[in-house]
Amino acid sequence: MERNDYILILEDDKFQQNILLTQARLLTDGEIICVESGFEALDVLKQKGEMPEFIVCDLQMPEMNGVDFIAKLSELDNEVPVVILSGVEGSIISSVLEMAKQFGMVNVATLSKPATPKKFEEVLSRLKDAVCSAPTSISYDEMSLDFERAFAENELVVYFQPQISVESGKVIGLEALTRWSHPQYGLLTPNQFLSELIEKDYGYALFKKVLDSAIEVGSFCHKQKQFISISVNVAPNDLLEDDFYDHLIAVVSKHNFPPHKLILELTENDICDEVASLLRIINKIRILGIELSIDDFGTGHSSLWQLVHGPFTELKIDKNFIDNMLESSKHMAAVNSTIALALSLELKVVAEGVETEGQYFRLKQLGCEIVQGYYFSKPLSQADLMEYMATVEGAY
C-alpha cells in the first residue's frame, strides 16, 4: 500500500489516547485517527486505501487485540512503521516484537507505558530514519539474472562502519559491509539481495571482492598512521573452499597488511557439518595472527562448545539484543551475561547496532569494550570514510 499523511493510534483507554494525541500532534501536521480495537483499525485502513505515516498500537484491547492486529497488518504491508506501546510485562512486549519480525515486519519498535514525550519522539525518529534510508523494495525475480553483471560492472561496493573503543572513544576498527549500487533501484542493502546471491552460488566471489577492497582501504589507513583493524564477514562454508587459505595469504601480502589487524567474522546463522575441517582451517588462520569473531552471537547456532574449543578472539552481540535492552529486563540480562561470559573467556566483546546515548552508556557500565552503530556513524562509502577519518579526533 501507498503511504498517506496521517497517524493511526490503537488505544482503548481514553486517558492514554489523550496523552498519545498530544505527543503525536507535536510530530505531524496531518490527521490523527484514534481507534479502540484492531477491527476498527483494519476498517480505517480499508477506507483510506493507504497506509498511515506510522501506527501506534496497544496490545490489550477488546474484540481484536494488538497481537492479532499486527499479524493481520503484516499481510497488508510489512514496511509500515509500527510502535508497540503497552503496559504489559517487558517479556511479552519483546516477544510480540519478535513475532512481528518473524511475520516480516521490518520497521517495528517498542515502548513501555508510561512513555515520556522524549522517548516517544526518539523511537519515532529512529523509525522514520529507517524508512527514509530504506531502498525501494524489489523482487528477487527481477534481480536473479543481474549478479553476473553486478560483478562485471563493479556494482557491488564496500561500505565501512567505524568501531569505537569505549575506553578511549577513538576509532579502532572498521567493519566492511556490502552494498549494491543498482543502476535501476539505487543503493541496496544486503537484506535485499544477499540471500538470493548466496543461493545462486556467488557468496564466495563476494567474500573475495569485499576482502580485497577492505584490506586495500585498511592498508591506506595504516599508511596515514591510522592503525585500525578491518573486520570482514565470512560464511563457514566459504572457509572450506579449496583456495581459501592461499587466497587469504595472497591478499594480505599484496597489500602488506598486518595479519593481526584483520578480523574474520564468522556468520553463525550458517550451519557447517564439517566441524573437523572447519577447526583445521580456523586454527591455521589464527596461527597467521588473523583474529576470529563470532558474529551476531545468540541468534544462530553458536554454542559454548564453539567458544571453548574454537580459537575465537572476539564475540559480537547481535543488534536485536541491543535494540531492546533498555526496555526489556530479559534482553538486558542477556546482554549483561554475554559480556560477562566474553570477558571471562578473555574475548573482546563488541556491541553492534548502538543507536542511542542510553544504550551506549549502559553498555559502558556493563564492561563492553567496543561499540558500533548509528549513534556514532552509519556505514560510509570509501570517499565518505576518508573524510570521516580525517576529521575524527584521535582516530589513530
UniProtKB/TrEMBL annotation:
InterPro entries: CheY-like_superfamily, Cyclic-di-GMP_PDE-like, EAL_dom, EAL_sf, Sig_transdc_resp-reg_receiver. The lineage of its organism: Bacteria, Pseudomonadati, Pseudomonadota, Gammaproteobacteria, Vibrionales. This is EAL domain, c-di-GMP-specific phosphodiesterase class I (Or its enzymatically inactive variant). Residues 140-393 form the EAL domain. SUPFAM superfamilies: CheY-like (SSF52172), EAL domain-like (SSF141868). It holds the Pfam family EAL. GO terms for molecular function: cyclic-guanylate-specific phosphodiesterase activity. Keywords: Phosphoprotein. The keyword Phosphoprotein applies. GO terms for biological process: phosphorelay signal transduction system. The keyword Methyltransferase does not apply. The modification 4-aspartylphosphate is found at residue 58. Residues 6-128 form the Response regulatory domain.
